[in-house]
Specification:
Layout: E1 6-10, H1 15-28, E2 31-38, H2 43-46, H3 49-55, E3 60-65, H4 67-81, H5 92-110, E4 115-117, H6 126-137, E5 142-144, H7 155-164, E6 178-181, E7 186-189, E8 219-226, E9 229-233, H8 241-254, E10 259-265, E11 271-277, H9 279-295, H10 298-317, H11 323-335, E12 341-348, E13 351-358, H12 366-369, H13 381-389, H14 391-405
Parallel strand pairs: 1-2, 1-4, 2-3, 4-5
Antiparallel strand pairs: 6-7, 7-11, 8-9, 8-12, 10-11, 12-13
Helix pairs in contact: 1-7, 5-6, 8-9, 10-11
Amino acid sequence: MAAPIRVALAYSGGLDTSIIIPWLKEHYNCEVIAVCGDIGQGGEELDGLREKALKTGASEVYIEDMREEFVHEYLWKLVRSGAVYEHKYLLGTSIARPLLAKRQAEVALKTGCDALAHGCTGKGNDQVRFEMTYKAIAPQLAVIAPWREWDIVSREDAIEYARKHNVPISQSTTKIYSRDRNIWHISHEGGELENPADPAPEHIWMLTNNPADAPSKPADIVIGFDQGVPVSLDGQHQLSGVALLETLNALGGEHGIGRIDLVENRFVGMKSRGCYETPGGSILIAAVRELEALTLDRATLHYKQKLALDYAEMIYNGFWFTPLREALDAFFAEVSKPVSGEVTLRLHKGTTEPVSRKSPNSLYSLDIASFTMGESYDQKDALGFNNLVGLPIKVRALLKKSASAS
C-alpha cells in the first residue's frame, strides 16, 4: 500500500481511536480526518469531542446527528424482522456499525481521502462490519487497521501509549471495561467479565435498575404499530422515533428490563462474554411478537421466525450492504403489512407481560377458539384430519409389529 496522504478515521473519542490519531500521524505522516456519528450515545461521550480530536492531531472533524436515520432505517427494520442473535443479543453494536462506516466512507470520498481507518481489533467482529461496508461504499480506498499493525497488544499498553502522548482518556488499569453505547443499547466487555465463570458485578450496569430494586408497582404501557413499525406510545402519535425510543429506554431502565449476560460466538471463530442493556428494544421486540401472534397465519409466522435467524446472523457478521439483506427486508415488509394495532405491556421488576392485544387485522376468532361449541367448527371433521395426519405413524407401527411377529 502506498503511503496515505489523507485518512478518514472512524472516531469515537474512546481509548483506541484517541491514540490512533497520533499513531497515524507518527507512522504515516498523513492528515487525519476524524468522523463521528451521533447515534444516541449521549452528550457525555460527545461533549468536547471535536476539541479533543483537534488537540490530538486531527486536521478536520465531522460530527453528525444520525439518530433519526439510525432509528428509522436500521432499528425499526430490526424490530420488524424480530431478529435476535443466539437467543439473547438484540444486535445493538452490530446494527450501528454499517451506518457509522457508511458515513465515514462518504466523508472520505467528499474530502479527498485516499484511506480509511478504524480502531477495531483483529479479534473482534467490528473489523468485519466496518470493512464490509467500506467495500460496498468506497472499494477503491485503502484500509488501515492499527490493531493489526502496531506493537500494542493490550488495553494496558494502549493506556500507556496515551499517557506518553498526552492523550486524555477516561480508562485506567482499574477501570478497563470496553463499552459501546447508542440509543438502542450499551455493551460491557473486558475486565472482570472476561471469565464467564464469574458473575457480572452490579456496578457495570448503567442503564437499568437491578430488577430486585425496581419499583414494586408495575407500569402498563400501550405501544402502537403500523405494519410492524412502532408509531405511538400511550396514544401519542406525534413522537419522533428517537423520542419514542428514549422514553421506552427510561421506562425499561426504571423497571430493570433489558439486561443480558451472554457467551456468544463471534464471527471470527472465538467465543466471548459480554453484558448488554437494551431496555427500550427489549420492550419493542416483546410487543411486536404479541401483535404478530394475533395477525399472522401460522405458516407465515413460522417462516418469518426462520428468516429472522438468518437476518440476525447477517447483521451480526457485518453483511448489511448486500442483496440478500435487502431481499429479506422486502420479505419482512410484505409479511408485516397486517401487523398493525396496539399492544399493552406490563413492566414489572425486569419482566414484560402482555395485558392486551388489539388489531383490525386480527385472525383470532372467538367463535372458533372458544371452548363453547359453536357452528363455525365441526368437531367431526377432526376425525379425518387425525387419520390423515397420523397415517405415516400408523403404517410404521404396523410394519414394526409385522416384523416382530415374523
